[in-house]
Design goal:
alpha/beta, elongated, 11 strands
Length: 332
């Protein structure tokens, strides 16, 4: 084994490494880290982990707590090739001074693109028009046409997260009126250049489309409540790519059944919904199978992020997408 490259290990679900890293990316990692002949691991009980310096983790990585860390006394860095590290890293990781990075910013890109696409489609009335045309190809759609269009439509963004901010940046290129609600925004936050900051009630009562980008925390369960949904204008659309429990789903079902609201849901509670659920059957709702995040060739963007972080670590530079212990509690 080479002594000039730190020993490293992939820990993630089977088959994911080749999806995340191209041959070129893998070669770049191999020039910086020594993976030896270790297979990709799905557990952390391999005795060869005793000398490992760097872990590259991904979806399927088991939780890393004090017991696992005791088996890896040489561990100095964990580079996560996905979004949140909340579910698989114990606070003890930070207490032991281990460097942690995430590819959350890279994973935010396709989620924001999905959201932008759905906002524009809903604003143009495409899903409703397509459903009506399918039911009656020769029917009169002129009443629908009177209500569609993306000129000065009000878009409400709930949560100035990484994804929420990227959505706002994408929307700035269109002739839309964008508002954002987040209790933690500072007066000097640059987001104010692209979106009007409003309270929750105003966001829901004045937006034609509300898109949810808040993290799932104890305080955000049911945040999109029956009351807030009731404030939305007739015919408005709720988009959720965050987490299902943030929305009072029973209240949303009632609004959809009443024909008052539309919805685009990439996440639900439970996930997936049982066959025959009203949200799956309603022509006013689009339910997608949690596909907004990185998939297919988008995974290579996560790989690029990890390679860049490993290079920074090798050069002794600060991480670009470091995760601190203080940030852990507020992560999605």
């Amino acid at each position: 084994m080479s002594t000039d490259r730190p020993p490293a290990q992939f820990v993630m679900r089977r088959g994911l490494v080749t999806q995340l890293f191209s041959a070129e990316q893998f070669a770049a990692l191999g020039g910086l880290l020594d993976f030896g002949d270790r297979p990709v691991l799905q557990t952390l009980d391999d005795p060869r982990l005793g000398t490992v310096h760097t872990l590259i983790t991904g979806w399927g990585c088991p939780r890393i707590g004090p017991e696992e860390l005791d088996r890896m006394p040489a561990l100095r860095a964990i580079h996560h090739a996905a979004g949140t590290v909340k579910e698989h890293l114990d606070p003890e990781v930070w207490h032991r001074g281990i460097r942690v990075t995430t590819a959350a910013a890279a994973n935010a890109v396709p989620v924001a693109e999905y959201t932008l696409a759905m906002i524009l489609l809903e604003g143009k009335g495409i899903p409703a028009a397509a459903a009506a045309h399918r039911r009656d190809p020769g029917g009169d759609l002129s009443p629908l046409f009177e209500r569609i269009g993306n000129h000065r439509r009000r878009i409400g963004i709930l949560g100035a997260s990484k994804i929420g901010r990227r959505v706002i940046a994408l929307l700035s290129g269109f002739d839309l009126d964008v508002a954002v609600s987040d209790p933690y925004l500072r007066d000097d936050d640059p987001i104010r250049e692209h979106a009007r900051v409003v309270g929750l009630d105003e966001l829901f009562s004045t937006s034609d489309i509300v898109s949810v980008h808040a993290p799932l925390l104890p305080g955000t369960v049911g945040l999109v409540s029956r009351r807030l949904l009731g404030l939305m204008p007739d015919g408005a659309t709720l988009i959720n790519t965050a987490r299902g429990p943030i929305v009072d789903q029973d209240a949303l079902v009632d609004e959809v059944r009443a024909g008052r609201l539309r919805a685009v849901l990439d996440v639900t509670d439970p996930e997936p919904l049982p066959a025959g659920h009203v949200l799956l059957e309603s022509p006013s709702v689009i339910v997608t199978p949690h596909i907004a995040g990185a998939l297919g060739n988008e995974l290579r963007r996560l790989g690029d992020s990890v390679v860049a972080e490993v290079r920074r670590a090798a050069r002794g530079e600060s991480a670009r997408h470091a995760v601190s212990l203080d940030e852990l509690a507020a992560m999605a």
